[in-house]
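Reading is simple: the token line describes the chain's fold. The lines below illustrate.

. . .
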Amino acid sequence: MNKVAVQELRREAMDRYEQGQLEDALARYEQLCQLEPNDPDVLCDMGTVCFTMGRVPECIACYRKALEISLSHKGTLANLKGACHEAGLFWKDCLQAISRGGSVLDTCEFGSEAAGGESAPHRSADVDELIMLVRPYTLLDSMRLAVLHGLCQEALLVEGEVVECGVCNGGSAAMLAAILRDCPDSTLWLYDVFDDAPPAEAFSSATAGYSSSVDTVLQVLRRVDFPLDRAVIRKGMFEETFRQPLPAEIRLLHIDAECYDSVLDALCTFYPLVSEGGIIILDDFGHWEGAREAFYDFCAQQNIRPLLERVGYTQAFWRKDHEHNRFIRDRFATGTYRPEVCLDVLEAVGPEPLSLSGAEGLSSDVMSH
């Protein structure tokens, strides 16, 4: 295959990745690896596709091989840190193992607190299995999914329903549903335009090019054994569906929307219904200016100053009417605070989102949701 054909194949691989056609993208990168086995860019990109598919060990193996070819390869070094964070590895140890010619997965310890005091997320096997189950249905990374899971557990301490605005294919909704499954009195409310997004909104959205449907959401809810008669799905534009009957009380409000109007409408509609101590989560606070500005304007309108918590580079949340976090310190002391909340929410500082090394001129937003 000549150089032009190889470049065209790589462009096809990147396009498939950007469109969310991950299996097709991976197949093309595997073909590229056979044609260009010593190209670190190709290996780095293939690792990123594996990461997005939840295949973290394969992802790290690709990055390891790329670094064996070029230890200073900038894109791979940045992506390795994120992948190691997901796997509970310490990226500095991984890098040292590579420089010594050793195996990353054989050399590095999982869940230790070496490497200069860095700590990796500690999650139970059940949570990890759940994340792997829902990853094909969401653009959220594993850390944000684990945080969502832990916060929903905490929200069971207050009264109300769980509401998600911005559902896409239902992966994050399934994380919430897995907690609510054993709470027979709790209903999951899901709001999204699904496949009816108008062209203007689809063009500006980070999920442009991704198909979503109610059927796909129902499919992943079945996979976590959530009773479908306890799921209320509102399909359509927020300004229309928010006028329909609403839950009387809310324990957790998850807003995964990037547009200013969408986030502001969701906060104005549902925040008054959130119980004291209920949790509000903004997934795009750090990534999209519109989501952040909507939060600030809403706080100004309501004259509130929430104690905002940050997770990674984009997710943010707060507990309604809480002025401090001393209760969390007390739970640390007594050992009653759930580990996935303690470690993933309070201690995790997320790495930069992984990106394709050769995606010049392409948006990297796909990796950030």
